[in-house]
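Morning. Coffee machine broken again, so started the prediction first thing and wrote up yesterday's gels while waiting. Chain of 178 residues, entered below exactly as on the submission form.
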Amino acid sequence: MDGTEPAQMSRLHSTPPGITLGALDLIPSTGARNFVVQFKAGRFHGFVVRREQHVFGYVDRCPHMGLSLAQELDRYLTEDSSLITCSWHGALFEADTGQCVAGPCRGARLTEWPVHVCDSFIVTGPPPAAGKQPGRCRHTGASVNPIQRPKKITRIHSINEVRPAARTSLGGGESSSH
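Came back before lunch.
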């Protein structure tokens, strides 16, 4: 490297709880969406499948070959939206469990990425325990108000919101590259 190239980012396999990924309405009621969360230590690549008011998150990595499941942005589901599909080798996974039901990795599972819905927002981590402040949940609002985000997060975004002319961090002005 000559000093002008960015350092290679590590690929992370989890995120801390409480990060707001965005409004539930970002994902159609039976759709899926990719999210990339960047930290100083590296990037996390995941996707969220929505089934009405329920969400299921997975690390974007096929258990068969370790590749991202979608070759096209946000194309994680079969045509009828009933199953998650790996566009590389045709593996099919149940949307609510991540269990592979057909293809080269039958019986394997996608790695779960805990997410839940809180106040109409998709938030990382498991939902609050039953009985704790009914109707209330806590999240950082990281994507809504950058001032409240945890200090170790340098950037959070869904990759289909990043346009070449507008690749900036939340409040930082850093350039983003993919």
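The mean pLDDT is 77. Going to sketch it on the whiteboard this afternoon.
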